[in-house]
Amino acid sequence: MDLSVAVQKRASSARWAFLRDVIAGLRTRPKCLPCKYFYDQRGSELFDRICQLDEYYLTRAELALMDQFAPEMGAQIGPDAMLVEYGSGSSVKTRYLLDGLPDLAAYVPVDISGEHLEQTARELARDYPRIEVLPVCADFTQDFALPRSLRTATHSAVYFPGSTIGNFLPSRAAELLRRITQMCGPGGGLLIGIDLKKDTATIEAAYNDRLGVTAEFNLNLLLRINRELGADFDLGQFFHRARYNSELGRVEMYLVSRRAQVVTCGGKTIEFGRGEAICTEYSHKYTVGEFAAVAAAAGLTLHREWTDKNRRFAVLHFAVLPSAVLSGAVVSRSQPSTT
Ligand code: AVJ
Question: How far apart are alpha carbons 287 and 285 in whole angstroms?
């Protein structure tokens, strides 16, 4: 099979998976859509703008931690590692880490947004000529193969910043962490960013910015479904809503129908009642203790924690427990996010 055929096949199977997930999600009650589909080219750009918003404290808090503690984090990861980043996006935070990791065997950014990934990988390869950059376009909730590096790595370390793990229900997060444990093996580690529990007002402001960028990011999902799946969502007839559910410790993001309406997608009709909501994203918040408990169940032990003085955000380093690898805990397949 020549390359263009292979690329087309991958694109069409990705489109089928997208269509299948959208139809399945819109047939569920309450309706939901997997948040991983936010990140088309436009969605990735909008997300980068969210990260620069005054209200979106997460990125600033995490960047400040990286700026201050990257050398300590690098020391935890150790020399001759293959650094695998989950959901690399624009790899802004990674640069701090790469600056402090002189003996990296290779850097493997993994992202679902292909174009964005290629561009970022090119820029990184240019700026870090001594590091081999091996991008992998994949959905990290599914199995994917690690590429071979020119230099032999003694161990793998997963970097999972941005509190993306918050998109998963705690049970799904545990499954994903278990896969990370298995992938890294003995001597491996995980450096992960976690948004911490805090007052509702601060959290809700971060997901309801004054400029409406988060609303646009949320609505862009419908635009993508229209464009890629030939649906006919009227964007003016849905609005953005984000609430912090303090009982479950998560932000719940919705697209709410302004009126009763019928939408067609993939030859199917979907009915909406007035005020009916599609859940598009959960963003779970943890205490360090809560998250360490989830990770412990996945065979990871907390080695170091870095938090800002307001305790808004934490970067945590976990080591793979040797017993977790030896026992070869059964790894089950993670389902797509939100649900
Ligand atoms: C990329 C998943 C960490 O949950 O805060 C930002 C995505 N959604 N604003 C988050 C997001 C709305 C973000 N994560």
Answer: 7
- pTM for the model stands at 0.91
Spatial CA neighbour of 214 closest among 163, 281, 266: 281
| Cis? peptide before 129, omega within 30° of 0 | no
* Cβ–Cβ under 8 Å, residues 259 and 271: no
Here the contacts of 213-216 (C-beta below 8 Å, separation 24 or greater) are 213/46, 213/49, 213/50, 213/53, 214/50, 214/53, 214/240, 214/242, 215/239, 215/240, 216/46
The atom number, within ligand 1, closest to the CA of 218 reads 12
- Is residue 44 within 8 A of residue 116, CB to CB? The reply is yes
The single-letter code of the amino acid at 324 is A
Cα-to-centroid distance, 284 and ligand 1 (Å) = 10
Burial class, 6, CB count within 10 angstroms (exposed 0-12 / middle 13-18 / buried 19+): exposed
Report whether residue 249 contacts ligand 1, using a CB cutoff of 6 Å: no
Q: Report pLDDT digits (tens) over 294-330.
A: 999 999 999 999 999 999 999 999 999 887 765 555 4
